[in-house]
Amino acid sequence: MTMAAAAGTWQLGDLEVNRIGYGAMRLTGNGMMGNSDGAPIDRGHAVRLLHTAFEQGVNHVDTASFYFSPLRSANELINRALDSWRGHEVVVVTKVGPGRTPSGEWQTMARPDELRGQVEENLRQLGRDHLDVDCASVAEHWGALAELREAGLIRHLGLSNVRPEHIREARTIAPVVCVQNSFGLDWRRAEDTGVLGLCAELGIAFVPFFAIAGLHREAAAAAEQDRRVAAVATELDATPAQVRLAWTLHRGPHVLAIPGTTNPAHLAENLAAATLRLTPAQLAALDADPAA
């Protein structure tokens, strides 16, 4: 069994993926803002990193055309890696709705009639004739994406940054295979609003982003400050990041994880979290009030 397969699998429509995947947001720098002060990632290094992830069973990669820094595009790096990969099929999930100018300035949310152009831009960058899964940020755009799905440009559809009513509304138009919302030990709004539970009820994959970073979001990694996490990590001889990922995966078999990194050691660490099994006592400790 590969490392990524240790946490089990889930279906994105007719596509089976391992529950630990790879998020490309950090592949071009420190987050999608492209705000890395360091040199741009070496293309060869990026391709080797992605191949290592694939070799360890990662078959679900999350990306977007707006994940770029001044000299690197996440989609272009993934394109290069997939072009030279001869192993298992890799499912690519991308997003439309938000957009940036070539210089990196954020634009207003795309109108429904502009979504086809964004889909085609992702296809050009990724070198594909269709997208495996395309996520929309708001349900009002769902009808336009459903038409692109019927036209064969998109295989499956997902939602991002939504509430339960958006999911219900979208399902009256076209199937929803996944929902991406920010979620982690320190940020549980998706649980509070009922999104996490609704996805479980409907058999929809819930794909949290910032599962490790939590409230730090795109900020550089910082030393673990949560005593609950540190204590469980010590018990398991694991790292705090692994404990946070394991806690996330324990929220339900429909929950996937897409941690991202450009560091091979961190990649191995993240994938190894699939093997962690938290006891009821450890889960209770992590869920306890941190101020207590």
Blueprint (SSEs and pairs):
Elements: E1 9-12, E2 15-18, E3 22-23, H1 43-55, E4 60-62, E5 68-69, E6 72-73, H2 74-83, E7 91-96, H3 115-126, E8 131-136, H4 142-150, E9 154-160, H5 164-171, E10 178-180, H6 189-192, H7 195-202, E11 205-206, H8 227-236, H9 240-249, H10 264-272, H11 280-287
Parallel strand pairs: 3-4, 4-7, 7-8, 8-9, 9-10, 10-11
Antiparallel strand pairs: 1-2, 5-6
Largest sheet: 7 strands, parallel
**How many extended strands?**
11
* Strand order in the largest sheet: 3-4-7-8-9-10-11
Count of individual helical segments:
11
How far apart are the termini? 40 Å
Encode the helix/strand succession as letters. Answer: EEEHEEEHEHEHEHEHHEHHHH
What class, by secondary structure content? Answer: alpha/beta
Globally, the shape reads globular
Work out the radius of gyration.
Answer: 18 Å
Beta-strand percent range = 5-15%
Low confidence ranges: none
Write down the overall mean pLDDT: 90
Helix share bin = 25-40%
